[in-house]
Amino acid sequence: MDRTMDRITDVATILAALSALAVAGVVLSGGSTGAAEAPLNPLGAVEEWEEFAEGGHRLGPEQARITIVEFGDYECPFCRLAESDLAEIMRAYSGDVALVYRHLPLRGHDRAYPAARAAECAGDQGNFWAFHSLLYSDDGWLSGDSTVEFLALAERVGVPDMERFQACVENEESVPAIEADKLAAAELGFTGTPSFLVNGQRHRGAAIFDPNTFQRLYESLVDAR
Fold first, then answer.
1. Which of 45, 103, 130, 199 has the fewest CB atoms within 10 Å of its CB?
2. What CATH number is given for 49-224 in this structure?
3. Are 105 and 98 in contact (CB under 8 A)?
4. Nearest-CA neighbor of 206 among 81, 112, 44?
5. What pLDDT sits at residue 144?
6. In contact, 149 and 140? CB cutoff 8 Å
7. What is the DSSP letter of 166?
8. How far apart are CA 103 and CA 131, in angstroms?
9. Is residue 144 classed as helix, strand or coil in its secondary structure?
10. pLDDT value of residue 38
11. Closest listed residue to residue 185, CA positions, set 76, 91, 80
């Protein structure tokens, strides 16, 4: 009988603890009536942020109301998903939003730096954005011989001097532009991808580009100008 009572007591204690955890979870999450809106400036603002938009590759007007600086890794699956969101933002806010892409190839992604190098090699011949888009939309280069795949992508986007491109891709030295981007990311405290600087506000991940969230952010930033 004593053992039975002990077991009943133990079960009751466990159930009470689980119940307390459940209540705590509801309180911490703001209740069960729906998720709260994401904060518009979760990581704090960066003063003189414009200097971070001076490097990298720019798409959109110099005098855009909103400038999005992305730090990305071509091997990062979340960056791949963010690419379509960014393309939609650029279409929806045409003329008002500019995108600056900067490289942040992560450790453990063996093909990320070579892909960034290939993008820079294409950029040397005026084909950065077309090559950049293919790296995210076509994942063939993630398997097999990546150099061969980079050459195929370069042909598809019309890189004019393929011999020059191949020599550039096969050069294993560090690329100054990529190293500068990595230093800029470190200065901002970015260690993962994708990370963004939006008119001086730092964001990790692409949740900010949910249409409703970005609309709120856009309006708040425009009002603050």
1. 45
2. 3.40.30.10
3. no
4. 81
5. 87
6. yes
7. H
8. 14
9. coil
10. 52
11. 76
* CA atoms of 169 and 148, how far apart (whole Å): 10
3-state secondary structure of 165: helix
41 class by beta-carbon count within 10 Å (0-12 exposed, 13-18 middle, 19+ buried): middle
Contact criterion met (CB below 8 Å) for 58 and 176: no
Distance between CA atoms of residues 221 and 225, nearest Å: 6
Question: Which residues lie below 8 Å from residue 81, measured CB to CB, with a gap of 6+?
Answer: 206
- Here the tokens at position 100 are 């600056």
* 135's tokens: 């790296």
C-alpha–C-alpha distance, residues 187 and 31, integer Å: 37
The pLDDT, as a whole number, for residue 118 is: 98
Question: Alpha-carbon distance 209 to 206, whole Å?
Answer: 6
Per the confidence metrics, is the pTM higher than 0.85? no
Average of per-residue pLDDT values in the chain: 85
pLDDT digits (tens, 9 = 90+) for 1-51: 444 444 434 444 434 443 443 333 333 333 333 334 555 666 778 999 999
Report domain extents, the chain: 1-36, 49-224
